Amino acid sequence: QVQLVESGGGLVQAGGSLRLSCAASGRTFSTYAMGWFRQAPGKEREFVASISWSGANTVYADSVKGRFTISRDNAKNTVYLQMNSLKPEDTGVYYCAADRFSAIATMKSEYDYWGQGTQVTVSS
């Protein structure tokens, strides 16, 4: 079992930056692909970014490409999401997720463990 705890959310003006962190419990963190998803009010949870177990491979949603960066530190059991040039449409609850089996994953159904989420609000 893996527990994931997100932090770093908050209120920021458009054009600003935030860095989200996701701390994982368990010794097998370094073997999992990790992902970030977000959910805006009244909308489906959507994929944001994913990173392979080694950190060598990443993939991003088109809407965040060039603005967001996913990274991980396996020694600290932590994955990060650096968000720059934030827009009001980036507002939502951001969730961290872990995938035990895929090399990298973009679909919610591929992920096995989820955190509780952290709120990000971008004002215009």
What's the helix-strand series? EEEEEEEEEEE
Which term fits the overall shape?
A: globular
Give the distance, in angstroms, between the N- and C-terminal Cα atoms. 40 Å
Report the count of strand segments: 11
The percent range for helix content is under 10%
Describe the fold and architecture.
Helix content is about 0%, strand content about 50%. It is globular, with a radius of gyration of 13 Å. The N and C termini lie far apart (about 40 Å). The model has no long low-confidence stretch (mean pLDDT about 95).
In summary, what is this structure?
With 124 residues, this protein is mostly beta strands. Helix content is 0%, strand content 48%.
Fold topology:
Blueprint: E1 4-7, E2 10-13, E3 18-24, E4 33-39, E5 46-51, E6 58-60, E7 68-73, E8 78-83, E9 92-99, E10 113-114, E11 118-123
Parallel strand pairs: 2-11
Antiparallel strand pairs: 1-3, 3-8, 4-5, 4-9, 5-6, 7-8, 9-10, 9-11
Task: Provide key terms for this protein.
four-stranded antiparallel beta sheet, 48% strand, 124 residues
